[in-house]
Amino acid sequence: MSSPKPTTPSTNATRQSTQIFSTAPSAGADLPPGIPVSMIELCTYYPHATQRPDLIRRGVRSRWHSTTFAKAQLEARAAGTYTLLDLEKRDDTVRQQVAETFRQLGTTATAWSESPAGKPYDKPFPGTGRYEDLWHVDGLGHGKTGSSGAPTLGELVKGVKKFPKGEDRGVLTMVLDWAMEQGEEVLREMTTEDVKGIVEEQGFESPKGARGLNWDREALARLALVCDV
């Protein structure tokens, strides 16, 4: 079932738009090393990470843009309750982040996506020959924000209203589901540094899409089923 469309702005719209992402990890929060992470997972657990140029470039390579980033972030943390003003404000914020990313390269998102460097993936990850390694987040640097350390698993799920599902439910979400089942102590004490070990111990496996070239692009089609993008 599709989520309700954004409502029209109310008197508390401005207040709400500043609070939706207030509990999310900071832009410099460390990503979980050694595992593939879907774009929907990144938007869900790390909405502030669109301040990081490498993440923006990964999305633009698969034809994501400011509005799709914004809607994925809002769907995760305010599904059915965010207003049109919330969407406009978030879209404007991410648009500035996208523009700054490519300004640093002396180009624009459109020009970069049409260049050889910005073309969608057409072969497995160099060196390993594994498609899944295309989606590892080890190489997504912190950018100007610098590292703020490894967030706890509890910090990742705080404020999330809708968790990734289906092909967007990668091993990170599987670990977080497992952690929530274990209880508050695990959520409080385990961090993103523990994620890879939990994946291996529990035998979690990435969805089929993570073992191909189009995981991020296919996520756009799934996002369109729940909101207009």
UniProtKB/TrEMBL annotation:
Lineage top rank: taxon: Eukaryota
Protein name: Uncharacterized protein
